[in-house]
Design goal:
CATH superfamily: Probable tRNA modification gtpase trme, domain 1
Number of helices: 5
Low-confidence stretches: 1-29
Order of helices and strands: HEEEHEEEHEEHEEEHE
CATH architecture: 2-Layer Sandwich
CATH topology: Gyrase A, domain 2
Helix content: 25-40%
Radius of gyration: 29 Å
Shape: globular
Distance between the termini: 86 Å
Largest sheet: 7 strands, mixed
Number of strands: 12
Mean pLDDT: 88
């Protein structure tokens, strides 16, 4: 018994040394003095911010296409409840001064745009002063008539303009973009390359707006840049 007790003593001592060593290692990890700490705070970032490269790209000379991400913009999806489309149209005129556009059309006033994206369904955008209260205004005006879904952080929105904008888009969209068929106020939801887009024309320059779900934003930008490269394009 005494021999066993004698042999176990070093084991206790060794354990004590290991415990002390562990304490020393852990205490050495404590930051002392003035150090730099990574800022892990969250902040908003646009859908295309990591992929946009401002400047001239593609063919040299005058840019035939200009691309920019539209960021200061609220987006919502408005869907009429069954049997409420006419009543919804009335309250939209009353509250926004806009007649709900028919299929394949868009309509704008005072920074607010309604784009038809399906039967009884519209994409609504708000810019300028309309950006900050668009969702609240829609919800208040359409309370029992339609569903309002905030899409502001769920989509990427790109504007393309310039003499060659139409030619660049025509490479990938399955839409007749000839001015006689697609003009100011025209809109379409269509398959483009490998994803669905909603497209509408905002002026006769021509200037177009395109939107996709945020996860497809990078693909949208890559397609537009590839299509515009031969004409030279400017990213703003």
């Amino acid at each position: 018994m005494s021999g066993l007790a004698t042999r176990s003593a070093p084991s206790i001592s060794c354990g004590a040394r290991n415990s002390k060593l562990k304490f020393v290692i852990l205490s050495s990890l404590i930051l002392k003095g003035s150090v730099s700490v990574a800022d892990l705070s969250l902040f908003p970032r646009s859908a295309l911010a990591p992929f946009l490269h401002v400047g001239h790209h593609g063919a040299e000379g005058k840019a035939g296409v200009t691309l920019r991400e539209v960021t200061a913009c609220a987006l919502a999806e408005l869907t009429a409840f069954k049997g409420q489309k006419e009543a919804l149209a009335t309250v939209i005129v009353t509250n926004f001064g806009i007649a709900l556009p028919a299929a394949n059309k868009s309509a704008s006033k005072d920074g607010v745009t309604f784009v038809s994206v399906g039967p009884g369904k519209w994409l609504v955008t708000g810019e300028g002063a309309a950006e900050h209260d668009l969702i609240a205004r829609l919800e208040k005006a359409t309370a029992s008539l339609a569903a309002v879904v905030d899409q502001s952080d769920a989509r990427a929105l790109v504007e393309i303009s310039g003499d060659k904008a139409r030619a660049a888009l025509a490479k990938g969209v399955m839409i007749d973009l000839d001015p006689s068929a697609f003009k100011l106020g025209s809109a379409a939801t269509s398959f483009a390359v490998q994803f669905w887009i909603t497209l509408w024309q905002t002026n006769d320059a021509p200037t177009y707006r395109l939107t996709v779900f945020r996860s497809m934003g990078r693909d949208l930008l890559h397609w537009l840049e590839s299509s515009a490269a031969e004409y030279g394009y400017q990213v703003r």
